[in-house]
Amino acid sequence: MNIRRTPLLLGLLALAIGIAVMVGVLEFTIGESVILGVGLLAVLIGLRALGLRRGLEQSPGSASVEPERRTAVAVPGESFSQSLAAFQRATDGYTVHGRRTIDGLRAAAVAVLTRFNGESVAEATDRLERGSWTDDRIAAAFLSESVELPSRSVVSRLRTAIDGQTTFQRSVRHTVAAIAAVGYRGAGRGTDDTTDGDSGGTTGDDSHTTPEHALPQYVYQHRTSAQTTDDTPRRTTNRSVADTTTRRKRQTGYWTGIGAVALLAIGIGTLAEAPGVVLAGVVGIGYAGFARAFEPPEPALEIERTLSDEEPDPGDEITVQVTLTNTGSRFVPDLRFVDGVPPGLAVTEGSSRLGTALRPGESVGLEYTVTVQRGKHEFDPALALVRDLSRSTERECFVGAETTVVCEPELRPVAAPVPLRTTAASFAGRLTTTEGGSGTTFHSVREYRPNDPLSRIDWNRRAKSGELATLSFHEERAARVVVLVDARKRSFLAPEPDAAHAVDRSVAAAGRIAASLLAEGDTVGLAGIGPVGRDETESAASMSEPCWLAPASGRDHEIRFQELLATHPQFETMPPATESRWLSQLRTIRRRLSAETQIVFLSPLCDSMATTIARRLDARGHAVTVVSPDPTADRTIGHQMAATARRVRRFDLQQVGIPVIDWQPTDSIDEVFARHAAGRGGRR
Q: Domains, the chain, ranges and CATH?
């Protein structure tokens, strides 16, 4: 441990002089003006020290570091103004005039009335003005200039006064609930969606806006590459020494308050000529001097991290054992250690933190359990904070160990048929077409032709009329499908900040869909749209390499498909820092698609760009089916508006012939496809 010699020598000198004066060895006199000046100076210095302590930055060793939790994601509709903005261009022929909230709600009402009630823009606008679009009189009056606001009862006024809600906020809440009710009530009318699982409209809470969530992220400065070993039984051990380039020293402010109080006591005691108060202040100065006399040691640490399984299945729990060793020659009196748990994992048992003291050569261990989600998870360098004996100064360093967990999503076939669209082509195989030919589903009866197979002759007709006829079935062919995952930044959404987001659900469903199609002999490919890197400093070149796997079949192709879902950076569980240039990625994908390729597009449909992607692919002749994991909530008015906007987008896609399979968070992909197959006759 380093000792600051200058403060220590000055303190010892002052102590010696004080003792000499007390025993009479030294004598000197001080004037009253000098005593008054010393007292005022001590008071001013003490006040300044208190001000510095108030603005002191919090140490990173506290609650700001939370590696035990998964990285939180946004909930659609956290910003009420952004939810309203989604409706401003949702209906052609209706324009807003700049009154923000009122005009935004009018645009939303026109959007849902024209979609779900089948009205024109003029009819919907007229109903808004007459107030006949809803039974809620408060909502009707809020969006109309001719309808008066209904009178309120005394009980309602008292309730509003207690809640502290203004008349404007109350009207907005009622209007949002009325708009959401129109969307929920009529969303299934005239659409191709048979998997609606949304509940009815609700008033939610009374808040006008929802504050943005502070996303707790634990992002270390250094990422390391994977290092695996062939250890039995599948336990991986990684060892590394502290990185000396990441060290920095800072004041903790542990003794700052005591020094300030001591100076104030000396100043006040001097001005009041109270020796006892001055003596108490001198004792405090001694503590403050003790805090300045030491420096934290230079750490020399080594960690060894062992995993019970480095290739688990999604949802498995693995045990992480960490051994921390002091390889230096100095005693470490106060060590705070936080292991670098990846953002995509969550600690479910034990703790990834440790506080201890380490002698030279001594080791200490900790053990905790994490629940693994799909993807490639690289452990960040562990954070170590070393303090001196006085705890006034700490030194920070990062101890890196190359540890990686790869969790591949399961490729288990879905229990129900994958909802591919009907095609008019006439190829042989298993994808149902509109043409008659060989297959399993009856199509029509035609005249017998020479060389028709005996198995297709209508023998019942032969027995009744004596005429020969041939049965035709719906022609089938092997499907050529590309599973396209919407991994844009705007798709990392979930009903709860710590719930599985839409991209995680989409990637998991992509593996299940591919397994089903491959099991039926179809050819399947994989593509992604969204940022490739997760670092804000990454170059544009690294952002232009989205995932692409051409449609094929076979066991090797299935393994490659699974590896890409688990390891490709475009499908990481952590939300990207920036958005990507998705338009150039879409153009590249379209150039690679053959004419007969179908698209299964996995997207939450929470922004207009998602519908644009689906429409552009469909316009190029590719039959697009959208499987949409729903990440919306209905707790606040912002959430309700975001859910209604998503309903409008689904309706618009279905109106142009693009089926949308809605996937609620409480349902499995098996249940969603089974309901769709039951309602539409399965795979067509």
A: 2-60+252-295 (no CATH), 236-250+297-407 (2.60.40.3670), 431-477 (no CATH), 480-630+665-680 (3.40.50.410)
